[in-house]
Amino acid sequence: MLMDELNRYLRQINLPGVGVEGQEKLKNARVLCVGAGGLGSPLLLYLAAAGIGTIGIIDHDTVELSNLHRQVLYHHPHLGSKKVMAAQQQIRAANPGIEVNTYAERFCLDNAAALISQYDIIADCSDNFSTRYLINHICFQLKKPYVFAGVSQFEGLCTMFL
């Protein structure tokens, strides 16, 4: 581990059960985030801050004014930009050592297995049930850990399926 990385991640390296070995595992991890909106945007910031080495982002949407109050990754200059491109820019600004793969397209049956197979963990930050069912189905087939989160008004949930 480089000295800059050691200094950057020292607080989490010092956590019981993490250590340098755990930080190396985070650096080598590949996480796919399906959806870069209200759930995905803060997740992406935290994944980058934690030092996840490769982050994939799939979302077909663009940043709109109505997103800015709850999608903390985006700011006024991002209006009209593809969410994945704005997210990539923000992640690289926060942590230039992170590899960010972007997919400015809908997550669908045609691309689901090919995308999921490239990553270690899949984070479902989508906003519709058909996408959620598809992620679950492909993760089950490929034996990939599936992190599911959802929010509605003032309530939310998060769980993981192995």
- What percent of residues are in strands? 15-25%
What's the CATH H-level superfamily name? NAD(P)-binding Rossmann-like Domain
Strand line-up in the sheet with most strands: 3-2-1-4-5-6
Question: What would you call the shape?
Answer: globular
Kindly list the characteristics that best describe this protein.
alpha/beta; Rossmann fold; 6-stranded mixed sheet
Describe, in short, the structure shown.
The protein has 162 residues and is of the alpha/beta class. The chain is built from six helices and six strands.
Protein model, in words:
With 162 residues, the protein is of the alpha/beta class. It has a single domain, classed as NAD(P)-binding Rossmann-like Domain (Rossmann fold, 3-Layer(aba) Sandwich). The protein is built from 6 helices and 6 strands, in the order H-H-E-H-E-H-E-H-E-H-E-E. It has a 6-stranded mixed sheet, with helices on both faces. The longest helix has 14 residues. It starts with a helix and ends with a strand.
List the helices and strands and how they pair.
Blueprint: H1 3-13, H2 19-28, E1 30-34, H3 40-50, E2 54-58, H4 83-94, E3 99-103, H5 112-116, E4 121-124, H6 129-142, E5 146-152, E6 155-161
Parallel strand pairs: 1-2, 1-4, 2-3, 4-5
Antiparallel strand pairs: 5-6
